[in-house]
Amino acid sequence: MKERTTLKKTMKPHWVLAIALGSSVGWGAFVQPTNWMGQAGPLGVVIGMVIGALLMMVIAVSYGFLIKHYPVSGGGFAYAFIGLGRKHAFISGWFLTLGYICIVALNASALALMFKYVFPSFVQTYKLYEIGGWDVYVTEILIATTALLVFAYFNIRGKGLTGSAQFIFCFVMVASILVLFSMVGVSPTSGFENIQPIFHPELTTFGAIISIVAIAPWAYVGFDNVPQVAEEFNFSSKKAFGLIIFALTAAALIYSLMVITTAMPMPWLDVVNEQLIWGTGTVIKQELGVVGLIILTVALSMGIFTGLNGFIISTSRLLFSMSRAKILPQIFSKLHPKYQTPYAGIIFTVIIAMLAPWFGREVLLWVVDMSSIGVSIAYFYTCFTAYSLLQWSNKARDPQKQVAPVKKLFALTGALFSLVFIGLLLVPGSPAFLGIESRVALVIWIVLGLSFYLLKRKEYYAIPETELRYLVLGEENEGK
Fold first, then answer.
1. What is the pTM of this model?
2. For residue 18, which phi and psi values (nearest 5 degrees)?
């Protein structure tokens, strides 16, 4: 049996927490509040985000159980293999790769958007073309591309560097948010009266909240970066569930604080109706001046950096795991000769993400939808696998399975929630139905994945089950 390539155990608990929290928050908390309020109103967004976090916690129960028993890279890919076999493992892994790469692209595009707002005269030079009513400039493409290359370089250099940097980025982001919220709260011209009406007056309360809940897979996706680095934990995998729950709780609080911070300075409906490029930035600048805008820019930059860093790490580990199982080209499971990192996956992720800035701001909306589909499919497979490995009572037939009726119920509920999320995105007429651009891109990704699958299928299915379990899970034999 061929020797299995493994990753070094260098990830500390606070690094993993920073990866989960920083990736969960990302750029959305600082760029999207006015867009979300336009869908649901301030309280509608807060309620939707809290419900979304609670739903993710239900799904996280399955992740916590599986990480504890299978601390390997691959996450949803490895879990689908355990529960449903190699074909479903590929489906889960391929769609999860889509979700992760989309978020890397989102963060790079958001960085260019921030520069375009803060330094418009610098960025808005050398216009290339217009797409979807949005002008695309050479400068913003260069900004996004440079950020991707820098983070690719640091990720190739080593996990210790990126892990400690992630923690610093996350700490600065949280501190900046608390400072902003406090400054707005004590400002004499801001107040809770500006949050009225608390829901969007032209939409039903239920529909408004559901439209926010539907984006929960995208908003909180960073929590499932934890299983991607499970193989690299230098601590007990039993701690993973607690880290995930803490990250989700903190992320929900951050989203809520940023929505309230955006809504308090002036009547939120007026802000939404102006359709500003960066509503939160405009509000904070008018209320707190340049100092406030600088703090917000720092917070946004840290959110973007944590998202870029966290998802480049996770995508490369997912590709590494799939390649180790021989379903993707071998290059993805080769480690850098000096730094011992999966460098090919890092480079591949960055190259694909570099395409996003060429499509302007509209691509942000397309990519959010795409990433939600990818991660929701992986959520379903993970919850289904946990459900299949747990049993209701000792009377069940398989004595090797763990008896945990509450966890089994959560796993079943999580699987159903995942199907609901997928339905909201794919069923015509739903409040979160994919746009035509997202559907076209999704079809392209499926065709690309099918090509990979057909190319490697013969080799993939020729691997004996015991050997594949060893490659994916590190098990020496099936009975382990």
1. 0.86
2. -65, -35
